[in-house]
Structure formats: structure tokens, C-alpha cells
Amino acid sequence: MVKFLFPTLMLHIHADLTNYRLMTLITQSSGHRLMIAMINVHLTLKMAQWLDEQHLNPYMAQTPYLPHFVLLTCWLLPLMIISSQHHMATEPINRQRTYIMLLTSLQFFLILAFSATELIMFYLMFEATLLPTLMIITRWGNQAERLNAGMYFLFYTLASSLPLLVALLLLQNTTGTLSLLTLQYSNPLNLSTYADKLWWAGCLIAFLVKMPLYGAHLWLPKAHVEAPVAGSMILAAVLLKLGGYGMMRMILLVLEPLSKELSYPFIVFALWGVVMTGLICLRQTDLKSLIAYSSVSHMGLVVGGILVQTPWGFAGALILMIAHGLTSSALFCLANTNYERIHSRNILLARGLQMVLPLMTTWWFIASLANLALPPLPNLMGELMILTSLINWSPWTLALTGAGVLITASYSLYMFLMTQRGPLPTHLIALDPSHSREHLLMALHLLPLLLLIFKPHLIWGWVS
Amino acid sequence: MLTRLPRLGLSLPRLLRNHPVRFVSQSKPSGAAGVAAVTELHPPAEKSDHGEVSPYVKNPDYHGFSDDPVVDEWNMRVGFFFGISVALVIGGAFIHYLPDHGMREWARREAERVIVQREQEGVPLLSEYYYDPNKIVVPGSGEE
């Protein structure tokens, strides 16, 4: 674990030092290439490490499904930096440093949150990720509405995670420990009263809002739309998964006897959300908002998969979370390349781009197909596993999930056709051709997704 | 940069001449009212107001990293080397040649071997006893 944390800490110092030594030499205005190198090197180290699920100390450990999330986090940080290069190019050097340090501190907290085995430590890191994200949204967003979005983001997640703190303290009071390593050997709690049911809800609501569950999702489209591209990427790719990860941890170890009955309304809500947010996507004019709602829709499936609590459900949730992390982040990058050229997020203003940016259309095509879960891609595998476990739970869920899958395909194709096909509007004359930087960015998002087809059991976790 | 837009070949000379009017109707004017509306909607933009100069003017090999051509190229090289060559290619090969994690592949091969062996011997694939009953020492009923 130190292997990941130490380089991350080093990145902080690095961001400082490059200013004086290397920045003038190698990377003048937006130089952070070396950090990417460092991250990538320690990425390969991490792959070696996920062979043996090791426990380093009582507070941090690698669990069988943890490395995927840490890997996703570490993979995304350099991508975020590459993607925001255009955004940050005009800023003075000090602000660039602050920005990079913000991103690295976010990564630091995320790694700690994913590797914590002590629930209070998990809670603290879960909350700590709020601050850098909030700063990214409210400081580096583009419109004045970002303050409103930041407010929504802060209060939705903060208000929902307060019950989690109370619930955790209560658990500590009852069992005497909050270590997940100890809790898994303790007797099942005797949960029968109404207060226990409230406690159950308190344990999960923080994660359900973070996921987000339909009904508590309003902060997400706002935050996504107003955040700069790096904020949208990390939000869609990792922060939502933090909720899923927390749910998996809590529901497996702590909440066991009650979850069977109490999860019923939440599953229904999640599946209803899949359909509803899909329908909302169909009438979006704002590209980033469309992608944000599509995230809500996919996360609804993940919530369903986790709450039915079967090995297939968990495996499907894990696969879908990883695949969706890469896909949605790629889509946000694509939306940003449009935004940098057209200076609007509106779909209607950026149509027919295949004419001018043909190679970018290829990336749009792959990303849209990944979003609608084309057969060999991990997205489909995750959805299939979740759908199967949901049908096993109740056949009636097929109506909702089936409709959801259809609608997902519709809005993904709608997004692709609207932005890429058709004649070029007359106001789009002098567009920049797509840069190598953007192609690198998209390749680094989508090639791992395609490579996962060939080695699926890296992310299949429970069943393989 | 504009030579990379093949579909705009027809409009290219017009663009290079740097007309102050950016929106020119290609179709023949059908009536005076329509033309007036278009010019009112899109007043000719001042060139200095635009504020964005294409980086390709200064550096035709622009990669999108930096305005300085040297920094730009080195950024591109380092990015592609570490992103594609190291992480994806070497990392992919590394993962491909990792040893069998948790002996899953071995277990599958072994299971297939045992199935073939048992089918040849004509015994059921799975015994109905989880433990070998001969090895279980049961306390006698009468002896106390």
C-alpha cells in the first residue's frame, strides 16, 4: 500500500519542484508529464501486487476487489491532467500547481478510502474526498452556476453521510470494533427493532446518495455540468464507484440479516431510476448533462446488483463499475473536445462533426457503443450478470431492466447520431483538427476497455 | 490546418482571403427579406475580437500540449511512450504472462482430467459422500 501512497505524496512535492527545475526545460506551461510517468510505473507495480491479497497492517489492506478501484483511480489521474491541459494552459504557474496538487490529494484520499479496513477511517477518507472535489467544481468550473452546483454537491453528500457517522458510532458501541477484519468473524447482530431498521438505512444512505440512487441524484447532473473536465471525469469514474464500493463492504459484513427484506424499496427505486433517467437522457440538449444522466442510469443497475446480494450481482456490479468508469470518463473527454472547439455544451450546435473530425468520430463511436453495452465489451458482461441476478430475485424486474437497456441503446445512438452524423452546420467552419493529445487521451481510456475483453477475469472477481 | 478538411475544399479560397463576413449563404437569395435577416442575425465579427489564433499557424505540427514546439513535441513523445508503450503494451504483456492466479486454470484443467478419467472408469462424476464413509469412525451403538 505504501507503494501507492508514497508516489502519490511524491506527486505533491513534484508539482512543487517542477516549477523551478524542470518546468522551464521540459514542460513549460502545463508540464506534468513526469508525474504521468511516475504514476504509470507504479501502476505496473500495483498489477504485480494484486496477485497476493496482502494485508499490510490492521488498518489498510488489499481485498480481492480493491485493486480494481485503486487502479482505476491511479489510471485516471494522469488522464485528468492530460485532459485539462487546454483548460489550464492560460493559467499562471502557481494556479496550475494548486490544481495539480488538488488532483493528487484527491487521489491520495481515494486510495486511502479504498484501502481502509477500519470503518471510521473509511468514513473519514470518504468525507475527505468531498473537499478537493468541491474545490475543483467551484473554483475551476466555467459558469457562475458552479457555485450552486457545488452547494448541491456538498449538502446532498454531507447531509446523507451524517447518519453514516452516527450509525458507525452505534456499531462501535455494540460490537466494540469497527475493523472489517474483526467484524467478519463477529456474530450476526440481533437486529429486530425499528431503530435497527433506521440504523440499516443510516449505514447505506450515504452510499446510495453518492452512487447516486434515483431520487437523490439531483446533485450529480449539476456537478457534472458545471465541473471542469477533470472534475467530471473523476466524479463519474471514481467518486460514484466509491459509493458502490462502500455499499459492497457494508452490506457484506455488517448489514447481513436485515438486508434481505429492507433492500426491497431501494432496488425498486434503483430500477425505476434506470428507466426514468434513461428517458431524461432522450430529451437532453446538453451533452454533459446527457452523459451525467446516463451515469445515474448505469449506477441504478449497479445499486440493484449490489442490493440483491448474490455473487453474480456483486460480480456484475464490479464489472459494470469498472467498465462504466472508463466509458463515462471517455465520454466526458469527448464532450470536452467538442466544448473546446464550439464553446457550448449544446448538442444542437455541434452536429455533423464526422465531416471535420473523422477520427474523433471513431472514438465517439467506440465510446457510444461501450455506453450502450455492445456484446464483447465488459459493459455488457456487467449488465448481463446484474440482469440475471435481478431476474433470479424477481422475474418482474425484467420489465424495468429490459426497458432500461433499450432506452440506453436509444440515447447512446441518439447522442452519436446527433453529434457526428448529418451535414455540418454552416457556423462550424474553422474548427481545429483533433490534436494528438486528444487521441492519446481517448486511446488511454478505450484501449484498456477493449483489452479487458481478452482478460476478463481481471475484473470478474467472485465468479471466474 | 485547413488543408486537413477535405470537405471544405470549396470554401477554402474564401477562407484564406479572410473575409470579414464569416457567414455567407451558399444558396441564391430568394428574397430581399431573407438576406437582411441573415446579416442581422450574424453581424460580421471583428477579427481582433475573436481572440483565438489557431496554434497551427505558428506550429503546423501542433500536438495540443503546449505552444512551444519543442515542449509540445517532447510532451507528446513522453505521453505516448509512457501511456501506450509502457503502460498498455508492456503492462499488457506483463499481465498476460502473469502466473495462474489462485490456481484457477490449474483447477479447471484438473477438473477436466478427472471427468475424463471417471467417465472412462464408469464411476459417477461426484460421489454422493463428501467424506469417505470408511474413514469415519462412528462410535458403536451398544458399547458404552
Coarse structural class of chain B: mainly alpha
By DSSP, the count of extended strands of chain A is: 2
Q: How do the SSEs of chain A run, as a string of H and E?
A: HHEEHHHHHHHHHHHHHHHHH
Q: Please state the average pLDDT score of chain B.
A: 71
| Arithmetic mean pLDDT of chain A | 84
CA-based gyration radius of chain B: 38 Å
N/C terminus separation of chain B = 99 Å
Order of helices and strands of chain B: HHHHHH
What characterizes the major β-sheet of chain B? none
Give the low-pLDDT segments of chain B.
31-49
Query: Any low-confidence stretches of chain A, pLDDT <50, length ≥5?
Result: 20-34, 48-62
**DSSP helix count of chain B?**
6
Helix share bin of chain A: over 70%
- Total number of domains of chain A: 1
What is the alpha-carbon Rg of chain A in Å? 21 Å
Kindly state the percentage of residues in helix of chain B: 40-55%
Family (chain B): Belongs to the complex I NDUFB11 subunit family.
Keywords (chain B): Electron transport, Membrane, Mitochondrion, Mitochondrion inner membrane, Respiratory chain, Transit peptide, Transmembrane, Transmembrane helix, Transport
Subcellular location (chain B): Mitochondrion inner membrane
InterPro entries (chain B): NADH_UbQ_OxRdtase_ESSS_su (IPR019329)
What does this structure look like?
The complex is a heterodimer of chains A (464) and B (144). In chain A, helix 5 runs antiparallel to helix 7 and helix 15 (311-342) crosses helix 17. Chain A is globular. The relative contact order of chain A is 0.09. The two termini of chain A are 25 Å apart. In chain A, strands 1-2 form a two-stranded antiparallel ribbon. Chain A is an all-alpha fold. Helices cover 72% and strands 1% of the residues of chain A. Chain A has one domain. Chain A contains 19 helices and two strands. With 144 residues, chain B is mainly α. Chain B has a domain at 104-134. In chain B, 48% of the residues lie in helices and 0% in strands. Chain B contains six helices and no strands. Chain B has helices spanning 12-16, 32-41, 47-50, 55-58, 69-96, 104-121. The longest helix of chain B has 28 residues, at 69-96. Chain B is rod-shaped. Chain B starts with 11 loop residues before the first helix and ends in a 23-residue tail after the last helix. At the A-B interface, helix 2 and helix 19 of A face helix 5 of B. Chain B: Pfam families: ESSS (PF10183). Chain B: Keywords: Electron transport, Membrane, Mitochondrion, Mitochondrion inner membrane, Respiratory chain, Transit peptide, Transmembrane, Transmembrane helix, Transport. Chain B: This is NADH dehydrogenase [ubiquinone] 1 beta subcomplex subunit 11, mitochondrial. Chain B: It is a single-pass membrane protein. Chain B: Belongs to the complex I NDUFB11 subunit family. Chain A: It is a multi-pass membrane protein.
